[in-house]
Amino acid sequence: MTIGLTVAALGIGALGGIPLALCRRSTIPGISFIAVSLIEILRGIPPIVWLFIIYFGLGTALPMLDPLTSAIIGLGLISCAYMAEIYRGGLSAITRGQWEAGEALGMGRQSVLTFIIGPQVFRVSVPAAASYAIGLLKDSSVAYTIGVSEIVYFANDQSRQSSDALGPFFLAALVYVIMTIPCAWATRALDARLRQKVAR
Amino acid sequence: MQQKRLTKPMAIQLDSVAKKYGDHTVLNNVSLSVREGEVTAMIGPSGAGKSTLLRCINLLERPDTGCITVEGSQIDAGTNFTAKDLAALRRNVGMVFQSFNLFPHLNVLRNVSIAQERVLGRPRKDADARSMKLLERVGLADKAKQYPSRCSGGQQQRIAIARALALDPRVMLFDEPTSALDPEVGLEVLAVMKELAAEGMTMVVVTHEMQFARDVSDHLVVMANGSIIEEGDPEQIFTNPVQPRTREFLRAVLER
Q1: Looking at the whole model, is its pTM more than 0.90?
Q2: Residues facing B41 on adjacent strands
Q3: In angstroms, what CA-CA distances link A79 with A93, A141, A158, B118, B136?
Q4: Is B156 exposed, middle or buried (0-12, 13-18, 19+ CB in 10 A)?
Q5: Helix and strand numbers, DSSP H then E, in chain A
Q6: Higher model confidence: residue B5 or residue A64?
Q7: Which of A15, B10, B82, B179 has the fewest Cβ atoms within 10 angstroms?
Q8: Is B255 helix (H, G, I), strand (E, B) or coil?
Q9: A157 touching chain B per CB within 8 A
């Protein structure tokens, strides 16, 4: 459940971050401002508050969403904002020469972005995205507060049943660590391989 | 030599191109003509504006004012030109950069093919076939499946030349193509450029390779402080420079 939640939110973030990052760079008046505001708001408000807003708040106007969906949407939106900033950093890391080579060959800006710059930005973003992912895995525990049955929920339940205040939580902590360490290893290996294919 | 010049049609025409960065004038109303099949070498001290002028030809640098005409496509920097006009002009121009700028996430073959597919709409098979021919021509067919990071500087530059040629440009621009290469390796690249010149390609080369400028170019342009201070027959300028600034520059260069 925790992993599913994290993966879903990350997926939304990785995809949603792209248009957001592009809007941020846009020269059309207003679009950049909207994008920046959106990013700052999404990053500035604590995840738990967002989840409450979406789960409880939206429910008043629209039909009630179940806890898991609310959590996925809430964390997904926040991930969009963080990924947009990661992509922004990646974009500026790619040397201008790549743009120039693409344009000199007659490729339009869109084409260069899609086929030349984009693939390189993804590779460059891997370390930052991985750090974020590991953080997200742990932050997903806030979903417990709106009733999503994930690790902390079970730990809490367990501790109440067995009147053991600390034990289940230590176990929960261990589970989180076991989940995050392979992630960190895998991304380090992936990053080393992808590094070769980027022009910084 | 001068006779030959006057009878060939115009490939590139730059009219009163000017560019300023704040208070600093980079190009001072420069005009330049390049004939079909001619090799023009541009030399001069750093900061003279040679690279900037070269990059104005395919509008990688936007001049503030001036008119650029390449093989019939004309763009007036003062007016608002469309992306279509720009694309039409760039279709005829190939460019080779000092830092090669190969695409690191694609293998060598894809590097040469991608623009053919995207810009010219050639199907992949045809594009790859053409790419292989060009790679053979520059002597690097065996590197087709490798990634640029595995190739030496000289190889990367030759691949970059193949990549530019793949779009069948009428004009090739070279921005200090050997400056990032050690002298021996630079020779491989200069050899390819010499062949290209012998085949009649219109070329404009910004370079510090004086031997190349002297032996291969048909027309020499000397720039300093944003203006062309001297231009004409290379042999004549090298042996008997008219302008004192040219003399100064050549003396410094040839004394090394």
Answers
A1: no
A2: B205, B220
A3: 21, 15, 30, 33, 48
A4: buried
A5: 10, 0
A6: A64
A7: B82
A8: coil
A9: no
Q: What pLDDT score was predicted for residue B1?
A: 46
pLDDT score of A56 more than 80? no
Q: Is the pLDDT of residue B97 over 90?
A: yes
Question: How many residues does this entry show for chain A?
Answer: 200
Between residues B252 and A58, which one has the greater pLDDT?
B252
Task: Considering only the beta carbons, identify the residue of A106, A108, A199 that sits closest to B91.
Answer: A106
CA distance B92 to chain A (A): 9
Q: Which residues pair with B67 in a beta bridge?
A: B15, B76
- Token match 């501790």: residue? A159
Cβ–Cβ below 8 Å for A197 and B93: no
DSSP letter for each residue of B12-48: EEEEEEEEEETTEEEEEEEEEEEETT-EEEEE-STTS
Is residue A149 predicted with pLDDT exceeding 80? no
The CA-based angle B165-B70-B206, given to 5 degrees, is 65
Which residues in B lie closer than 8 A to residue A193 (C-beta atoms)? none
Express each pLDDT in A131-148 by its tens digit: 888 888 888 877 777 766
Instruction: Name the token pair of B219.
Output: 């027309």
Mean pLDDT of chain A: 82
Binning pLDDT at 50, 70 and 90, where does residue A22 land? confident
| Beta strand ranges found along B65-158 (DSSP E) | 65-70, 73-76, 93-96
| C-beta atoms surrounding A182 within 10 Å | 9
Contact between B244 and B40 (Cβ < 8 Å): no
Distance between CA atoms of B196 and B190, rounded to whole angstroms? 10
- Could you tell me which residues of chain B have a Cβ less than 8 Å from any Cβ in chain A? 58, 60, 83, 87, 90-91, 93-95, 97, 99, 101-105, 114-115, 118-119, 147, 149, 160, 163-164, 167
Burial class of residue B183 (count of CB atoms within 10 Å of its CB; 0-12, 13-18, 19+)? exposed
Residue pair A134/A120 in contact (Cβ under 8 Å)? The answer is no
- Counted across chains A and B, CB pairs separated by less than 8 A come out at 67
Q: Which residue has the tokens 């010149």?
A: B197
ipTM of the shown complex? 0.89
In whole angstroms, give the CA distance from residue B189 to residue B216.
13
Other Cβ atoms less than 10 A from the Cβ of B59: the count is 20
Question: B109: Cβ–Cβ under 8 A, 6 or more apart, which residues?
Answer: B128, B131, B132, B135, B144, B145
